Amino acid sequence: MHEAVGLLEVFGLVAAFVASDAACKAANVRIESLDKNKPANADALPVPLIMVVKMRGSIADVNAGMEAAEAAANKLTGVVTKHIIAAPTSDTEKMLRISAL
Hints:
CcmK-like_sf, 3 helices, 4-stranded antiparallel sheet
């Protein structure tokens, strides 16, 4: 059985660390990776670096972790987008292993 995965895209590395910390304190999740993305329009963004926090756990824990992480990131630089995949397929699992860091 695959674990759920939460993907939280935030502005900046500090926000990613703070969001990760909040998620792990709020729920039984583990941070699988932090990914970076510098989009083409980076100069127009509030922070020129977008980070994705990937967290894993049960669907209930990922939901709780994502809520805490989103609240923490919004206190700093903000959230770009978020998504939870309750039961990733094996092909999705392969893609989740890709990391830019």
